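thread: overnight batch results

M.L. [08:02]
morning all. the overnight job finished for the chain we discussed friday. pasting input first so we're all looking at the same thing
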Amino acid sequence: MQIGEIAAASGISRDTLRFYEKRGLLRARRASNGYRDYPPEAVEWLCYIRTAQALGFSLKEIEADLPLLAAPDAAAPQLRAALQTKLAEIDRRIDGLSALRGELQRRLDTPMAACPLQP
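M.L. [08:03]
and the structure it wrote out:
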């Protein structure tokens, strides 16, 4: 598949595909005319990348787990562990944001004559 075909099939821009290729997330062969030639399974791979991003994984995290995502059925236990780790991270962030929200609300509830930024 040429870059335009894979862009249309995946809904991902050509620039993003080139960026993924530069980072090593996507591989293309070069045809004799110099055009990129992506294998058909690249569309499925791009879906994995997009799904992982939608679930809060950064490209750096996806790159680190690249071998896991290359064979997701065989790596299901490791992928489940990565999802559990991400869930725990999100729970910690939610707890931190809840505490921050409580502190902001407490400061807003102080009398308006007092500066809400006083320690």
